[in-house]
Structures are given as structure tokens and as C-alpha cells.
Amino acid sequence: LPGVGAVVALEAAVRRRLGEVLMIFSKAELESIEAAVKEAEAKTSGEIVPVVMKASGNYAWCGFLLGTFGLLIASGLAWYGYHNHPFSFTLPVVFLFQAAGFLCGWLLGLVPAVVRFLLGKERLAAEVHETALASFALNGLHETKDRTGVLVFISALEHRVEILADRGIHEKVGKEYWKEEVEKITKGLASGEGGKAMAEVIREIGEKLAEHFPAQTRDKNELSDSVRNR
Question: Across the chain, what does the average pLDDT equal?
Fold first, then answer.
């Protein structure tokens, strides 16, 4: 089945390319973020975990949906062509039209901007929030000694940033503080300085944590300082 193999190879190539586009931080930026986490946590008993994801959901259905529309449009064009040029539109040509229509629609469904348009802001926000909550739990941020875990979460495809804080620190600073920090990262990403903005926000969160939960002699680093990146 060389045709199927070619499509699979094309899908892999396209997804690799999209993965490169969605990797929003360079190696140097990731290292600067990790350094900021170490610096921040040296001042506090709190824990900060940065997570950068390519996408918060599996949106493969977008490709199949648009592929189906492409197939229908191609079928309509083939029907029109057959009725106007019956000897040119043989059965293999019709199948070729349909396959090309499906492939074009499917590839369009891999484009991040198209996915965001199809899902809409509310669906995107819900997907990212749900994934951020799961990430908070998976990274053990709900198990810190003083309930001071903070998740700084970026989902690239959806263009969204969330900061989730456990009860211990959230009760001290309130919702507006986290909203301001989210806006700083968002502006940094928009200006092409997302790594710098994220590192600065992590340091600021470290300072805020230190005000209420300063480092203690017997503190241990409960969670890794690395950027979770997938």
C-alpha cells in the first residue's frame, strides 16, 4: 500500500514541523527558566513547577472533519466536471479528486490557527484549564507540606497561560495577583520574549512566596526544578 505509506509519512513530516513551530522556548530559554525556579525556591519553602505543552488536547478530529468537507467539495466538483466533460472524468479521476480533497482538508486541520478557530475561545479555555488541573495533580503540587505549590502552565497551540496555586499561598495573595502574572507572560510571548517573561514571573512568585513562607533550615526541594515540556 504505497499510497497509504506516503500519507502516513506526510502526516509524520507535517506533525514534526508543527512540533517545531509549537516549541516556543529555545534550550537557552528553558535553562534560564530552570535557573529562575532554583533562585526563587532558594528563598521560600514553596514549590514552583513550570510546564510548557504543545497542546492541551488531541484535536485530530479537526483534520478528519475538514477532510470530510474537502471530500464532499471534491465530489461536487467531480460531478460537475463529469456532466460537462464526461470523457475526461473517468472513475479513477473522480477517486483522485476525492482523495485530493480529503487530503487538503485534513492538512488544513493540522494548522494551529484553524484548530483555534474551529474550537472557539470557550472550548480552548476549558481544554487548557482541565489539562492544567491534571498537570497540577500529576506533578504532586497538591502534596507540598504547606500547600504552597504553584503551577505556571503554558499551552502553545491554544495560546493560553494559566497559573494555578494551592490553597496555602492562594489565600494569601488572591486571584488578581495571579491574573497580573499571567498577563505578564502573555505579553512576553506576544512580543517574542516569552522565556524572559516567564523567568521574571517565576522570580516574582518566589518573592511573593518568600513573604508568607520563607525558607526554613530543614526545607528540602520537594519537586524537580526542571521545565516539564511535552
Answer: 80
Long-range contacts of 55-60 (CB under 8 A, 24+ apart): 55/22, 55/155, 55/156, 55/157, 55/158, 56/127, 56/128, 56/130, 56/131, 56/132, 56/155, 56/157, 56/158, 56/160, 57/127, 57/131, 59/109, 59/115, 59/119, 59/157
Q: Which comes out higher in pLDDT, residue 11 or 108?
A: 108
Q: How far apart are CA 199 and CA 221, in angstroms?
A: 19
Say if strands 149-155 and 160-165 run parallel, antiparallel, or are unpaired.
antiparallel
112-138 vs 60-84: helix crossing angle, rounded to 10: 160
Q: What are the cell numbers at 33?
A: 527558566
Residues 64, 67: Cα–Cα separation, whole Å = 5
Longest alpha-carbon distance in the chain = 86
Rounded to a whole number of angstroms, the CA Rg of the chain reads 24
pLDDT-derived band at 147 (thresholds 50, 70, 90) equals confident
User: What global pTM score does this model have?
Assistant: 0.74
